[in-house]
Amino acid sequence: MDIIAGLENKNHTEAYQLLLELEGRSAESDELYAYFEAFLKLLESKSSFVRTRGFRLACAQAQWDIEGKIEQNLDTLLSMLEDEKPIAVRQCLAALHQVVLYQPDLIGKIEEKLKAMDLSKYKDSMRPLIEKDVEALRKMM
User: Fold this and answer.
1) How far lies 106's CA from each of 71, 87, 94, 97, 135, in Å?
2) CA–CA distance, 62 with 68 (Å, rounded to integer)
3) pLDDT at 1
4) What residues make up the domain containing 59?
5) 8 near 50, Cβ under 8 Å?
6) Cα(33)–Cα(63) distance, rounded to whole angstroms?
7) Average pLDDT over residues 119-129
8) Which of 25, 50, 47 lies closest to 39, judged by CA?
9) What does each C-alpha distance from 43 to 29, 58, 83, 135 come to in angstroms?
């Protein structure tokens, strides 16, 4: 099965199930580290679902990232924290926990991005949730 096609599947239920499976596999081994660039490419998708899947899987490679791919692409990854979809931002903040845990050298850049986030573009109903997610990530740092 083509992993990237599966992640881009318009059937969001199937694509989400694949995402969960791949995140589980990423926690256990480095078998998906070779797909890092492909996961990064998903950030260019028009679909916020696909962008989020790519971000989550790129972050899931943090513990296997001996080549510094996350650091080299950190600005691109962190640009997802400006996504117009608040749900995407929330999932990305959660996925960054992996990066903070396994790549502590990147905490400074992540912290800078968190400080620079403009949450005013999100509805009042979502803003406090994103703020809570930001705070949870900061507590990990």
Assistant:
1) 7, 24, 16, 11, 17
2) 9
3) 55
4) 3-140
5) yes
6) 10
7) 95
8) 50
9) 23, 10, 10, 24
Give me the sign of the Cα torsion angle 106, 97, 76, 29. positive
Residue 6 token pair: 């599966």
Query: What pLDDT digit, counting tens, does each position of 18-73 carry?
Result: 999 999 999 999 999 999 999 999 999 999 999 999 999 999 999 999 999 999 99
- Helix (H), strand (E), coil (C) string for the chain: CCHHHHHCCCCHHHHHHHHHHHHHHHHHCCCCHHHHHHHHHHHHCCCHHHHHHHHHHHHCCHHHCCCCHHHHCHHHHHHHHHCCCHHHHHHHHHHHHHHHHHCHHHHHHHHHHHHHCCHHHCCCCCHHHHHHHHHHHHHHC
Mean pLDDT of the chain: 96
| 117 φ/ψ angles, rounded to the nearest 5 degrees | -65, 135
Q: How many domains would you assign to the chain?
A: 1
2-8 mean pLDDT: 95
